[in-house]
Amino acid sequence: MTSYELFIAGQCANSLVALHNLQEVLERLPPGAVELTVTDVLSEPLKALDAGVLITPALLCRDHGKTRMLVGSMNTRERLVAWLKSGGPTMNDDGV
Amino acid sequence: MAYSSPDQAAALTIWQALFDALPAAVALLDAGGRVVAVNRVWEKVIGPFDRAAIARDPRESYARMGVRKGLWDDAVAQRLETALSDVVAERIESYNDEVPVTMGEVLWHRVGIVPLDRTSFDGAVAIHLDVTEQRRMRLELVEQAQILENANRELRQFTYVASHDLQEPLRTVVSYLQLLTRRCQGRLDEEATTFVGFAVDGARRMSSLIQDLLSYSRISSAVPKMEAVALGDCAEDVRRALHAAIEDAGADVRIDGLPVVHADPVQMRSLLQNLLSNALKYHQPGVPPVVAISARRLESAWEIAVADNGIGIDPEYQGRIFEMFTRLHPIGAFEGTGIGLAIARRVVELHGGTLRVESAAGHGATFLFTLPAL
Fold first, then answer.
1. Strand A66-71 and strand A58-63: pairing?
2. Closest to A54 (Cβ–Cβ): which among B2, B36, B58?
């Protein structure tokens, strides 16, 4: 199973947009296809640092021992879907 | 951490090298204001990235870190925290201020807090630049400027008071010399009458000098009353005021396309009158003066030209003609005390412009002054 970890900064605008867009995209996938964890760097800064996350929002994708990271650029669904498609689970252009 | 490709690791190395090469202390701050990455200058000046400090107190911001390290006090920390939170919340575009930083001695840092690209990221960048030396020099300059301003003000006041107070005894000297001439008519021999005449002429000339000194002093200390001024109308007023001199000299005065400028109308008339009077006065013997007043638009200013066909000025003397009481001709050759151009230059300077002359002896002169465009 592909696991995603989204790092956000509390209620900051770009973090909220990233969370909203990611949830919307992942909800269209079959149940159990992916796992999403959300980490707030404001309350867990060390976890972010250990993951190499310096800037939020950041999305880590862990899949079969490989780790990819998307930093920022989650303000449009299209961009998010394009990144997820480039190395993640199979989905069409609508994220389904 | 693992990277998805070697290219990504290489790119990160390049960005770190660029970050380290910056001549200012730069730190990347997360949205909570914690330092999460620093460049080499920051390591040297403020200290290395301190993961253990975040472990001890995950809520310690960069502003509070400075207090803990004794770099700045609570008041500065409060300012920086407020600035950071305002930048992150987009209440302000960015923050820029000078703050005292204690590093053995008190240094001054220009601190900038700028957001990361707001369309994509939450967080900010803090930039510290040591401006201690520049600040010291700036304060010294301000102090020097203040001393000079005070000295100038006192000098202007002295000039005004001195010239004003000199008028009265001079009037008395002239009056009594004239009274002496009248009362002693027939009793003074020819030589004594000539001497008294010289004394009266000298006193009158001194009176003119004092009057001009007063005019210069008034202009120098006056704060221009700025308004929109049609220079064309000003020039027409001046032409009317100098009607007699124009007629006497048979002069042709042309006024062409002058702009509206932001200026003091009284001072503008004084300026144009001084330049036009000069052009009429220094004409070629037997050649009627032709004076053209015109304008040319520069990038952010107007350049006004007063050009004549007069006797011109030898380039050797052009630097001196704007000095007070400078005359290039013997007293009596031309009327006046030699203060007109000094007043003209002062008026132009008070309006933020410059006054210069282009001329060659025998080939006329063009006085050019600039005024900021509206």
1. antiparallel
2. B36
